[in-house]
Amino acid sequence: MQKRHLSMLMMVFILLASGIVNAESYRDAFQYLSPKPNAKLVNKGSYIIIRPGDNLSHYSFDRNDPVYIEGEQSGKHSYDVKTALDNKTLNIVPHTAFEPGERVAIVIDNGLKSRGSDRSKDFKYEFTVSPKQEYQTYDNPSLTLEVESNNLHNDDFNDVILNDDPNYPSDFPNIWTDVVGSPAPGYIFSGYAMNTFMPSGYALIMENDGTPVFMRKIEGQAWDFKKQDNGLLTYMTNSYFDPNHISRAFIMDQTYTVRDSFEMVGYELDIHDCKIDDDFHIHLGCYDVQIVDLSDSIAGGDSLCQVTGFVHQELDSLGNVVMEWRSWDYISIFDGNDLDFTGARLDYCHWNATDIDNDGNLLFSFRNSDEIIKVDRNTGDILWRLGAHAQNNMFTIVDDSSGFCKQHGVTFMDNGNIAIFDNGNCHTPAFSRAVEYELDEVNYICTQVWEFRHNPDLSSPFMGSVQRLANGNTLIGWGGNAAMDMTEVASDGSVVTELDFDTTRVSNTYRFKKFPWTGIASRPDLLAEQTDQGIHLMFNQWGDMAITDYIIYMDDSPEPTTILDTTTQNYYFLTDLSYGVTYNFRVTGVDYVGIEGNYSNEVSISMPNLYMPGDVNGDEVVIGADVTVLVNYFRGMAVPVDSCWNADESEWLYAAADVNGDCIVIGADVTYLVNYFRAINSITWCEDTPPYGY
Prior knowledge:
694 residues; mainly beta; 5 helices
């Protein structure tokens, strides 16, 4: 194509000026193309994704230069060409981003067109880039709703009191369980967050009675923690409330080792769902906030409305984009239900779940349009839309008088049916339920075949999950309902297990899942907390029954190799530590034959300078007696009590006695302290050892 670039340049400007796209349908030329012809609000960092339909080896094209790209403002774009692992999909990766708001012309080598199409000429089309300058993080309103805290657990529940157990950190929840039947085999998986606004949470695997068999504190929280069909574990972190943490999907193996992590291409992923398919492709989604003028579309519409759409990406194991699906291309902004279309913000679809049907196609749950949408994974086309309350429902609903609404989650079941957690915000009175539907996708008939409502009813306005288990039981996560967190029921609707986290706190249990699982950690997990007395260490080489002892290493420098102690416990308390010092810790496990294993993760704790400026004798008040102690110090008759390490000077400092703040204790401090009592000056401190809380 290089020889044709000069003539193309003139043609591209004509194309942009006229808005002409090939008369030939892009569907005739390609199985999949992204961005779509005439697409609007396209991300300025988007790849051009081309899939003709067959293996790329069947096509004759310039593999180094298969397309021509030019923007109205950004001009001609150079790019890299990447072939996805399916060997059917090309990723064209521009070296520079497009300009906000510009139109972009694309010319694709005719050799890349489907073999059944007219391959005598190149394919030409255009799209328009979003006018926004930077990616805008979406503050999810459904995560901030308040829920009534009327827990239903009673004296029959087994209390697993863990936040007073030295094996667990202080913010770990108490867990109440009631096992009254025959639970399905397996372990319970959940991501627990003390509340949505906390920067960390826990990835948890539990026995039926709530006893943890694995626990890891995750910075950025641990959303949607679960086992994938390929046996790997995944969880997602978010940056909604802590910008220091990147929104990312993490993959762990059976040794609880993080093997890989993924981000979306051009977007910041959302934590609602993550799916790994049979091709080991990872499916991720995100919210995409765009500024849209609604003033001409609806009376009272905002001309600068922040409208939130949805973007799905399927990535192969190398991070190539195999497929991207955008709600902007397929769902009208006005398809949402019970929304204020005149407000400054509009979340018109609100995606919250993805699954894969038995035919390999995608199922998306859209809360705010009250529907499940099935999408052709090869082409991106919508195959059907389901929802009794949805504006574009294509099914006849049988044996379900209420219909699901504001649902959270859709799960394809082994029997070919789908399960949905119906939040039920629209029901009168409101109630939530787990519901199973049989779908006739030929005649578009949806029949309810099973449901479970708690007794008494629970109303969960957001979040939640449903999973059919191997023995026919169903696991239900009640999401944003503080009265109960999880229920497992038999096929006849009888309750076999219930679980509830500590409801004295605001907490989120996004989803619950249950899987057969055997995990043996390759090294201990180490946590450390600062306490009033010192430092509390907690460690566990989860699942390794051969470990009998732990060796604790501590140093004031990273990667400590100095042995502090050996213990048979899973915790250790340190006291009498020095203020202002950063302590570094690692732990190893030792098995029953004395073989020491791998180092744990390393943790560091900086002890704050817990002193009161001027309190020379340490009695927590500054009075004349402190002058006496300071004078006696210079006479060799007394020693100030508070010592802090001054890293800049590499020496200890009696910080409370350094009342003039010059980072050294000398006779001038006596004069300064006396003058403090005369109201001549104020007490200060050394800037290298500031007291905690000042």
